[in-house]
């Protein structure tokens, strides 16, 4: 199921933004314009599907931190509205999901500043008009079951629970289940730890690993899967050689999977992960994310150029373009050079992000989420 649009209103610097989404979403802007907030808004859609939306917002400072801090109309409630549109490529069915989050009322079952899910709605368009498949207001939720009947969900939902997660996991409401599965499969790579205790530097359990964990903890197993299960590391080897001038060595795993680098100036020496530089480790982790045996439905990268030497950027852009042949990519960067390289290789238009009166905006983006012909 392919992401086709995103809506974010009242979230941090995102006063109101709506955009369409293609195979590669490329967002570029200076520090402080709100690029990470847009990335985070998409990540919160995944959290709604997983049932961790309230936790994720509380972890970033709670509703006081999440709410748009600019002016509001007097009668306008303080709400964060997040929405996503997806399309099933096999059936052409179009899914539209929206969740509204606000503060609990003075007398409620929730804590004072925790996020409270106010409303949710899921509609699906498979014919001439969209059909409402799930609605939630307060603790009550209704959905269409496998026979298409609109029924009430038998459990009253808590303020912190999302209907998408609860109903989608129940197995009784197919459309909610399909959407939940789709967004739960997205991967977000917001930098990789490269300190001495980084999970990516550690050996992995010798288990076939088809895609990289978000913390990079199974990196060695991902490389071993490519080398010894798929038996194809041509693209990976080329990327490592182009970016690092080195050869990736992945021995046959025993109880654990490991890897190392062979550098041309030290042909008899194998450099283990704990010896590699931060930039080397970060590039290898990105390689694991973008070149794994299987790719998730969507990969989101937030400032992937961080800690990388400029000479590594062409190889990174090559990996992004190669991955875009198999999945959707969402790339947020402040590097104009990387954005130009990705545009050259994929044809994706870089969307320039700016601040206007304190709000994050995208240059040339109209109210419908489309760029004008001139832009």
Automatic annotation (TrEMBL):
<dbReference type="Pfam" id="PF13304">
    <property type="entry name" value="AAA_21"/>
</dbReference>
<dbReference type="InterPro" id="IPR003959">
    <property type="entry name" value="ATPase_AAA_core"/>
</dbReference>
<feature type="domain" description="ATPase AAA-type core">
    <location>
        <begin position="269"/>
        <end position="338"/>
    </location>
</feature>
<dbReference type="GO" id="GO:0005524">
    <property type="term" value="F:ATP binding"/>
</dbReference>
<dbReference type="GO" id="GO:0000731">
    <property type="term" value="P:DNA synthesis involved in DNA repair"/>
</dbReference>
<dbReference type="GO" id="GO:0016887">
    <property type="term" value="F:ATP hydrolysis activity"/>
</dbReference>
<dbReference type="GO" id="GO:0006302">
    <property type="term" value="P:double-strand break repair"/>
</dbReference>
<dbReference type="InterPro" id="IPR014555">
    <property type="entry name" value="RecF-like"/>
</dbReference>
<dbReference type="InterPro" id="IPR027417">
    <property type="entry name" value="P-loop_NTPase"/>
</dbReference>
<protein>
    <submittedName>
        <fullName>ATPase</fullName>
    </submittedName>
</protein>
